[in-house]
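Internal tracking record. Fields below are filled automatically when a chain is submitted to the structure queue. Please do not edit lines marked as system-generated. If the sequence contains nonstandard residues, flag them in the REMARKS field before resubmitting.
Queue: standard
Priority: normal
Entity type: single polypeptide chain
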Amino acid sequence: MSVAAVSKASVQTAIAAASRKTGVDFNYLLGQAQVESGLRSDARAGTSSATGLYQFIEQSWLGVVKNHGTEHGLGWAADSIRRTASGKYVVTDAATRRAILDLRGDAQTSALMAAEHAADNKASLEGSLGRSATGTDLYMAHFLGLGGARSFLGAMAEDPQRSGASLFPAAARANRGVFYTAGGQPRSLADIYTRFAGKLDSGAASAGATGLASDGFDSLSSGLDPFAGDGEGSEVILGNGAVDNDRHWVETTLAQLGGNRATDAARVNPLRPTPETARLAYLMLAKLGA
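SYSTEM-GENERATED OUTPUT FOLLOWS
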């Protein structure tokens, strides 16, 4: 097996672990990583400070590490980051600052921080939108920032055909291909949103995901690892055996809940988090004493 193949499998394993640990949808995290970096943890942007699997710029990375580093064993990093009165994140010691920023190149840390960042954005967006956030909504927050995503989604709800460039002129100048067609015509908000959804789904599919990255999803992961491999994490297995075993558990639990085993289990995919599988996951965790 090539070094590249092992590296890609290791990245996928890191994303799956982050999904399990945080409850953020695996397909979304995989699709985002594919779109942002092609699943390359060493990816670097040529026009900004964006680095790593999820192309975090420096300020965004320092912010998410400050807020979530401690709970993932990075207390030393979180404690070293200070937020100024103007809202900027700073690290006094230059060597420590470089060490924290270099963590963007570690697939496991990057995936965990991306998942926490998505969870924060999800909660905030749902609070302002009054509905469940989709994977595409979260990607808009990644692309435009949380405030920009709120403005975009609110404007799209009122007038889907409004020009995106008229609402975000600075972003349009920096990302002309997103906001304009090849012929120079401005894209509508709905068109931009739809194209982002397709980009996420295509990225997830090309990386081997079993579901859509752009859909809405429940905040709780099903707890099932979609990448179960050998000891080195170099082999991806999505065989029927694992699915059959999980489906048997689903069928049994549904029966205990009073559901119809034949119809309910057929529409529940244990590898795709939904409200149904979320409820089952709660029961499973309770059964395991977690």
